[in-house]
Structures are given as structure tokens and as C-alpha cells.
Design goal:
heterodimer; A: mainly alpha; three-stranded antiparallel beta sheet; about 5% strand; B: alpha/beta; Rossmann fold; 2 domains; seven-stranded mixed beta sheet; five-stranded parallel beta sheet; 13 helices
């Protein structure tokens, strides 16, 4: 039971981190009509800037400053580069973001080197958020922070599962950001203009609104969110030059599976992929054991075969991409998408 | 010009006597060794440490530092942890005239290099290349896939698992074991030998779970650790190295896992920091050297730390320079084929005492050390990565105890005349 809860929470926390990226990406997609290939690169810039800035002003100030900085960079990129090529159509826009991703990658390696940097969480986040105690009688206990050591010895009264503070922090910040984003888009005047500008830019322009500035704002907020995710991802995972491509691939899967342009779809797909990966990794079920469970008779030789011993946990890294293929075959508009007419 | 019979005889005599005339023909020559390992990416820190170690010892062993009196030079090639890049590196080294190649990170890559070196040597007699394996531990490399041109200095999985399981046999509190390894030849071999040897030595131990994860790709081990904890394992056996071990142990500490870890590479770059004080007394390493060896080794380790602010980990590099020096002296040559013949079966002294490059399979017969992570004290003063902790010896396994039988059927080329 504690395993189920911990795995679920891990999955949700990763899913929420994914959503911080995919929400911005999907908003920008609605605006440009093409995917922003450099989106995950802003995530990486967030992590590296977080590393650099936190050495000067400390982690907490960096957590506030870096998303603003990254958002500013994103807005400048939109204003001085993307807007210029917008009139030439989708392909040049796509190529510009594609090129930017590589420029950022090379710049990061030039500045910070080709090996990971030591970006560690601050003191406050190094501990545990809470402990789940699973008692011998099967009941579950709950303690904030780290449970006392005597309760948690290997042969002690309970098995302790700690939930790292960094993960809880990601969940908290992500939820906070997402609720405020949702309120901004649905409850404020600016939000209404954004929604209208995404769907009918010419009409909104005719009404006297500065649509290019709205687009710049959307791009800035989207990349700023990616930057914030980068600071938190940087301390939780590894801050290294490949982090953009590794996560970027999964974020693309998320927005396509969720339905291009659909925020709710991106949210659903983020959580789905986060939780799916978390549980798949922990599954020892192999093809052979599943066939055996289904009543298929397998010889000892067949059971020892490489293919029959292939477990779900070994397939975990490719599951998002498998899901992508399946969704594209059976529901090309994505889970909650409506853009395919 | 017509030669008389007498002149011909004199010339033949002279030629046959030639190798014996300049007794120290190799003295002063430069021997270049190409190090082909990752210098970038998530495993980059491990490769950079190894490159530093090889450069450090090339300097220490050059000239008067080796009995043959040769000068050592290290060339580095970043293989990005890829087999195909490594083969490009091998070709580049051969093209530059380098005849000694060393690699260690990744048994899959080592296997590819063996195949490439075999092919090159078959096609280019007289320009042979020798592969000095510093860390790749797949037993098959000196077993079913053994080659005359491959020499292993860092021990293998069978030897190390033999020693580990011998220790586990005497630990009755170990009852439930989890195997987590990287999904490539090395990880498969660790899991296979652990199962085999535990079944023989401790049939009561239950293997409660087994995970294989991709090499150098996992950034988040939390789900894997949740699985280990759910299995109720009291001990974990893992051959993981580099980021795959540091991130695993960091996630385990964050999740509050309190079982033991039996590892091959707890002392390798980045992992000591991840272990920290949280892993005190619970993490073991089986290796060919350790943090508090004393003597010359300790002097080197302290100098290395002062110079690079890094730890000297790769004991096998010292074996390699010792073996090359003695073999080149015996062969009176730096020619790779001659040196290979001189190294095959060579007995020499190294940091852990007398060792032997077994003639039958080119597996160095050497002692192994089982160590445990603990706080530094008067007897165990060396602290890696300034952690205040150290790996202290629990047990030393002599070369004859650590040795495992060989299945190698080696094709030995004729010795050059």
C-alpha cells in the first residue's frame, strides 16, 4: 500500500513538472500553429541559470529571479526573431525554434561544460516532506518530516517510506502556478484577450488590441514557466547539457497525446505519462510471466529466452512513445484535442 | 654489385646478432597509449578522472620511473560512451601510429574494441596493436571471447562476485536480496553471477526482485527505489557505476531505504558525495584497491588530491604502467607484439604486492578488497571528495582466493623473432 501511494505521488510530481512545460508549449502552439522546438531548452536554461544565480543570491531568490529572466529571454526571442519570420509561414518558424534549440545547447556547453554541474537543493529541501510507516499489521501511519530513527530500523516496528521534500516542493509550486495561470486566463480581462487573440487574432486586432504584444506575453509566460520548472528539475534530477533533449521528447509526446492546443488535454496527458512511468519501472512482470498467468504453457527453454524475460520495467523508457504511436493511430486529435476538423 | 659468400655470411651473422647488441634498444623511446573513454555527458566525470589518473602516472612512470627507461604519453579520445565512436577512436589511434589502446568504461565497448583489434592485427602483421583493459569487467572478455591481444588489469565480475558472496555467506542477517543493474552485458553478468553464486553458497537467501535499467539514461531512480523498498529487500547487489550508482543511492537515502548496498564502484567519482554520512556502515565495495592502502599508494593519492582536488581511484592504471615497464624491459623493445608476448604470463610487483598476468586468459591475478563506508579515523584517514567518510577494509582476498578458473581457449600467434 505504501508502495502504491509513494509511486503514485512520484508519478504525480513528475507529471506536474511535465505540465509546467507542456502548458506553455501548448499555449504557444495555439498562438503560432507550430511546435516550439526550443521549449525544453528554456527548461535547461532555467536549470543552469538557477545554478549560476543561486551561487550569487541564494536558491530562494534565484527561484524568483530565474523564471523572470528566462521569460524575458523568451519574450525577446519572440519579438526580435520569431515575429520576423512569422509572415513567411510555419516552416520558417519551426526552423527558427529548431535552430535556437541547438544554439542554446552549444552555448550551455560552452559556458558550463559538457559534464553535469553540482546543483543541489537548499538545506530546507534536502530532507523529507513526510514519512509513511507501514506497520506489521498492515495499517499505515503518517508522520510529517522524517520519522524517528528507532521506528525505521530495517528490523524495527515499521517500514518507513520517506517522501523527498524536493518532490513535494515541485508539486506545491506547480499546483500554485497552474491555478494562478488558470485564473489569469479564465477570470481576467487580459486572459480573455489572450483567449480571443489565440483563436481570432485579426478580429482582436480590429478591436484595437495589440496582438503582437499579447503573443510576446504568452511566449514570455510560457518560457518563464519552463524556466521555473528548470530550477526545480535542476535540483531534483541532474543539471546537464542533455536534459533539454531528454525531457523535450517527452513533453512533445505529452502535448500530442493530450491534443495539440488543449490545456486540459496536456494536463491529463502529463499526469498519465508521469504515473505510467513511475509504475512501469516498478513492475517485474515479463512477457513470459504474463503468458504463464494467462495459462499459456511455456517450456523451461522458452521461459529462459531473452524475449520472454523482457520486463515491463525495461520497456518503461519507451512507453511514452508507444502511447504516442497508439494515440496517433486510434485518436489522431489527441485525448481532448479538437483541432483536427 | 656481387657479394661473395664470405660477405653474405658476415651480414647474416651480424643481422642475427643485432637484437642482442644494443642491450637497451628501447631506452628513451616514447610509448603512446590511447585512452578511449567518455570525457563528456553524464558519465564524463568518471572518464575525466581516469584521464587525469593516466596522465598523472604517465608522468610518474616515465624515464627512471620504469625499468625499461621509456617515456609514456597519453592520448585521449572522447568516445561519448558509444561503441561506434570508440572504433573511430581506435582507427584514429592506429592511424597516428599508436600501438597501445586502453579503455574501461563499458564492457560492451571493450568487446567491440577486442573485435576491432583482432581484425587489425590479423590484417596487418608487423603493426600489431595491444588492448589494455583498465576497468571493463565482463568475465566473457577473458572467457569465451578471450583474445591474445587483450589484457585485463581491473579484475572481473566472476572474481568480484566470488569475493562478495563469500562475505555474504558469513552474514546471516542477509536474507532478502534485490539485484539492480544496468541493462547491458556488464549488468546482466553481475545479476547472473550473483544468482548463481548465492544459490550455491547461501541457498536460503531469497532474490526478492531484479531490475535492469538503461545505461547512463536514468535521471530519476525514485521509482526503482520504491520498487526495492516494496520488495522488502534487506540488501541490494549492484554493478552500477558513475551517475547510475550515485543517483540510485541518493534516491535510496532520500526515500529512507535502510538496507545494505553491495557495490563494485562506490568509490568512483561522484558516488562518495551521494553516499555522504547517510550511508554510513551500509555500503560495501569490492575492488582491487581502496582508500587507505598506505605506502607509496597513499603518497600518490595525497599528491593527486592536492594537485587536482580529485581522488585517485583507478588502481588498474598503476598495474598497466608497472606491467608495461617490466614487459618492455624483458622484451628489450616497445614493439607491441613483443611486449604482448612478454606480458603474457608476466609476474610483476604492483601496489597490492606481487601479481601475475595469467598466461591462459590474460586476466591479472591479484588481491581484492572488500571495504565498507564509514567515518574517517586514525587508521583510515583518507577521505574522498571531502566527505569526512572513507572506505575501510573489511576483508582482503588474496590473489589465489579471488582467482576463478578460466574457460579461455586462446589463439596464440607465433612470437616475433
Amino acid at each position: 500500500m505504501d508502495f502504491f501511494i509513494v509511486s503514485l505521488l512520484n508519478g504525480i510530481s513528475f507529471g506536474l513538472l511535465l505540465f509546467m512545460l507542456s502548458s506553455g508549449l501548448t499555449l504557444i502552439f495555439s498562438m503560432m500553429g507550430v511546435l516550439n522546438f526550443a521549449h525544453a531548452s528554456f527548461y535547461m536554461v532555467g536549470a543552469y541559470l538557477g545554478f549560476a544565480v543561486s551561487q550569487i543570491v541564494g536558491f530562494w531568490a534565484a527561484l524568483l529571479l530565474v523564471p523572470l529572466l528566462v521569460g524575458l529571454l523568451g519574450a525577446l526571442f519572440e519579438k526580435y526573431s520569431l515575429r520576423k519570420v512569422h509572415k513567411y509561414g510555419h516552416v520558417p518558424e519551426l526552423m527558427v525554434t529548431f535552430g535556437l534549440a541547438y544554439i542554446i545547447w552549444e552555448l550551455v556547453m560552452l559556458i558550463w561544460g559538457r559534464i553535469p554541474v553540482e546543483f543541489r537543493p537548499p538545506e530546507l529541501l534536502q530532507g523529507s516532506a513526510f514519512t509513511l510507516l507501514s506497520q506489521p499489521d498492515g495499517s499505515l501511519g503518517f508522520v510529517w518530516g522524517r520519522a524517528a530513527l528507532e521506528q525505521c530500523q530495517p528490523l524495527g516496528p515499521a517500514i518507513c517510506s520517506l517522501f523527498p521534500a524536493t518532490r513535494a516542493f515541485i508539486m506545491g509550486v506547480a499546483l500554485l502556478m497552474l491555478v494562478s495561470l488558470w485564473l489569469l486566463i479564465t477570470r481576467t480581462r487580459v486572459g480573455l484577450v489572450i483567449q480571443a487573440a489565440l483563436k481570432h487574432p485579426e478580429m482582436v486586432e480590429a478591436l484595437g488590441h495589440n496582438v503582437p504584444r499579447v503573443f510576446m506575453l504568452v511566449f514570455g509566460v510560457g518560457t518563464g514557466l519552463a524556466g521555473l520548472a528548470g530550477v526545480m528539475g535542476g535540483i531534483t534530477f541532474v543539471t546537464e547539457p542533455m536534459m533539454a533533449f531528454k525531457l523535450g521528447a517527452i513533453v512533445f509526446v505529452v502535448v500530442v497525446v493530450g491534443g495539440l492546443g488543449s490545456l486540459a488535454g496536456a494536463f491529463l496527458a502529463s499526469l498519465l505519462i508521469g504515473v505510467m512511468q513511475s509504475f512501469a519501472v516498478a513492475s517485474d512482470q515479463s512477457l513470459g510471466s504474463m503468458l504463464l498467468a494467462m495459462g499459456v504453457a511455456l517450456s523451461a527453454e522458452a521461459q529462459a529466452h531473452e524475449l520472454m524475460r523482457f520486463t515491463l520495467s525495461m520497456a518503461a523508457p519507451m512507453l511514452p512513445f508507444l502511447l504516442l504511436v497508439l494515440v496517433l493511430i486510434f485518436r489522431p486529435q489527441g485525448l481532448l484535442g479538437n483541432r483536427y476538423h | 654489385m656481387k657479394l661473395t659468400r664470405r660477405e653474405l655470411t658476415a651480414a647474416a651473422l651480424l643481422t642475427s646478432a643485432l637484437p642482442a647488441v644494443p642491450a637497451w634498444a628501447q631506452r628513451g623511446e616514447t610509448v603512446r597509449i590511447a585512452l578511449i573513454d567518455p570525457q563528456t555527458g553524464i558519465m564524463g566525470p568518471v572518464g575525466i578522472n581516469q584521464l587525469r589518473t593516466f596522465r598523472f602516472f604517465a608522468e610518474k612512470f616515465s624515464g627512471a620511473g620504469n625499468p625499461a627507461g621509456v617515456r609514456f604519453e597519453i592520448e585521449d579520445f572522447d568516445n561519448k560512451l558509444s561503441a561506434s565512436e570508440s572504433l573511430t577512436g581506435v582507427q584514429a589511434a592506429i592511424g597516428r601510429g599508436t600501438r597501445f589502446i586502453t579503455q574501461g568504461s563499458g564492457s560492451g565497448i571493450a568487446g567491440a574494441i577486442i573485435t576491432a583489434v583482432e581484425r587489425h592485427n590479423r590484417r596487418n602483421p608487423g603493426q600489431e596493436v595491444v588492448f589494455l583493459n583498465h576497468s571493463a569487467v565482463d568475465p566473457d572478455l577473458t572467457g569465451s571471447r578471450c583474445s591474445f591481444w587483450h589484457f585485463r588489469f581491473g579484475g572481473n565480475t566472476a572474481m568480484k562476485m566470488q569475493a562478495l558472496t563469500t562475505h555474504i555467506r558469513g552474514e546471516p542477517t542477509i536474507r532478502r536480496v534485490f539485484l539492480i543493474n544496468q541493462n547491458y552485458t556488464h549488468g546482466h553478468q553481475v545479476a547472473r553471477y550473483a544468482r548463481q553464486m548465492l544459490a550455491r553458497k547461501r541457498p536460503d537467501i531469497q532474490i526478492v526482485g531484479e531490475s535492469l535499467h538503461p545505461l547512463a539514461l536514468v535521471r530519476d531512480f525514485t521509482p526503482y527505489v520504491a520498487n526495492i523498498m516494496a520488495s522488502g529487500a534487506d540488501s541490494v547487489i549492484t554493478g552500477n557505476w558513475g551517475s547510475d550508482l550515485s543517483l540510485l543511492i541518493r534516491a535510496a537515502n532520500d526515500a529512507g531505504y535502510t538496507g545494505r548496498f553491495f557495490t563494485y564502484y562506490a568509490g568512483v567519482t561522484g558516488t562518495p558525495t551521494a553516499l555522504g554520512t547517510a550511508s554510513e556502515g551500509r555500503v560495501y565495495q569490492i575492488a582491487i584497491n581502496h582508500h587507505n592502502m598506505g605506502g607509496q599508494m597513499q603518497i600518490w593519492m595525497n599528491e593527486f588530491r592536492q594537485r587536482f582536488n580529485d581522488d585517485l581511484i583507478l588502481g588498474s592504471a598503476i598495474h598497466i604502467f608497472n606491467a608495461l615497464g617490466v614487459a618492455m624491459q624483458n622484451a628489450r623493445s616497445t614493439n607491441a607484439a613483443r611486449v604482448a608476448h612478454a606480458m603474457s604470463g608476466l609476474r610483476f610487483n604492483s601496489f597490492s604486492g606481487p601479481v601475475e598476468m595469467r598466461r591462459a586468459d590474460h586476466e591479472l591475478q591479484q588481491p581484492l578488497y572488500l571495504t565498507r563506508w564509514q567515518r574517517v579515523d586514525a587508521q583510515h584517514p583518507y577521505s574522498p571528495e571531502n566527505t569526512g567518510m572513507t572506505l575501510a577494509v573489511v576483508r582482503r582476498f588474496d590473489a589465489d582466493v579471488a582467482s576463478t578458473p578460466t574457460t579461455c581457449a586462446m589463439q596464440r600467434p607465433a612470437a616475433p623473432v
